[in-house]
Amino acid sequence: MSQDRVYAALAACPGEYLSGEELSRELGITRAGVWKAVEALRQQGYSIEARTGRGYCLVQTQERLERREIAAYLGQERPNWQVFGEVDSTNSLCKRLAMDGAEDGTAVLADSQSAGRGRRGRSFQSPAGMGIYFSILWRPEVPPQQLMTLPALGAVAACRAVEEVCGVCPGIKWPNDLVMHGKKLGGILTELSMESESGLVEYVVLGIGLNVCQRREDFTGEVADMASSLEVELGQKVSRPRLAAALLRQMDRLRREALCAPEAWLAEYRRCCLTLGAQVQLIAGEQRSRAVALDVDEMYGLVVRRPDGTVETVRSGEVSVRGLYGYVAGEE
């Protein structure tokens, strides 16, 4: 659409005026078409100044999580991605798209979720205008056990995206929570479907919820003391569209480099993992025990040493690990 192209050109030159003639020449549309696109953008709430002899200038306001704003940062054409104002859950939507035949690499983003979900059936607070809620669909045709490492890989990709945009890399609480200054910024949820005859994965959906613009008072209930946002922890504004574009690029990189070769990103995961060296509490059902986290193995399992000296490896599906967000070993 000409509106998207005009917006991208203006957004690429913040604070600068571009003449109608220059936009017409660069975009291959008439000057009348440029004017119509500008008027349409204004009607949609964008502030665009026009000065005789200078042209048009996009007045930067609070960026919105919309397709044209994300596309302006994406830097390349990418098929099969959609942006929504509100959905029940981006993972649920991606799964419905998968059952309708959506292709490998299909991605969805939303400004808010009415029924956001985290691990172990927990809800994920997803208010409008504050976070990024993202899911991507892949069809790798591999045994399900080959994707056990995907949540951890997703955390690495998300950390890379944050570092690309903010200049600071979050840490990872094993297995896949993003953490900064002891507060949770977001998490990963993966869900898959298997083909009954072959036993291979029919599709897998990886979802990310990331807190970006929330203030401390925006978090309620049980997460109020443990959650935070990038803007709170960094003390600066963060562009949600730019971060969403970075997430798309890093997830595509994950697909190319590490989805079926998780060892490729293991060293980076270990560098980011804040759980290593910490005393943690292992929770399996009603049982609780203390341990010290020693390492992450090649399948991203957590190697721990118990008080009696026993060393073992635990998997995220078997135990829950506490040791950050203010928890200490031995707490109930």
Please, could you describe this protein's structure?
- The protein is α+β, with helices and mostly antiparallel strands and 332 residues long.
- It contains 9 helices and 14 strands.
- Strand 10 and strand 11 form a beta hairpin.
- Helix 1 (2-11) packs across helix 4 and helix 6 packs across helix 9.
- The longest helix has 18 residues, at 240-257.
- The protein is elongated and about 80 Å long.
Short description:
The chain is α+β, with helices and mostly antiparallel strands and 332 residues long.
Furnish the topology, listing elements before pairings.
Elements: H1 2-11, H2 20-27, H3 31-43, E1 48-51, E2 55-58, H4 67-74, E3 81-87, H5 90-99, E4 107-113, E5 131-138, H6 150-166, E6 171-173, E7 177-180, E8 183-194, E9 201-211, H7 230-234, H8 240-257, H9 266-272, E10 279-284, E11 287-296, E12 302-305, E13 311-314, E14 320-322
Parallel strand pairs: 3-4
Antiparallel strand pairs: 1-2, 4-5, 5-9, 6-7, 7-8, 8-9, 10-11, 10-14, 11-12, 12-13
Helix pairs in contact: 1-3, 1-4, 2-3, 4-8, 6-8, 6-9
Structural class: alpha+beta
Q: Tell me the span between the first and last alpha carbons.
A: 56 Å
Radius of gyration: 22 Å
| Residue windows where pLDDT falls under 50 for at least 5 positions | 326-332
Beta-strand residue fraction = 25-35%
Note the main sheet: 7 strands, mixed
Overall pLDDT score: 88
Query: Helical element count?
Result: 9
Task: Using the alpha-carbon principal axes, give the shape.
Answer: elongated
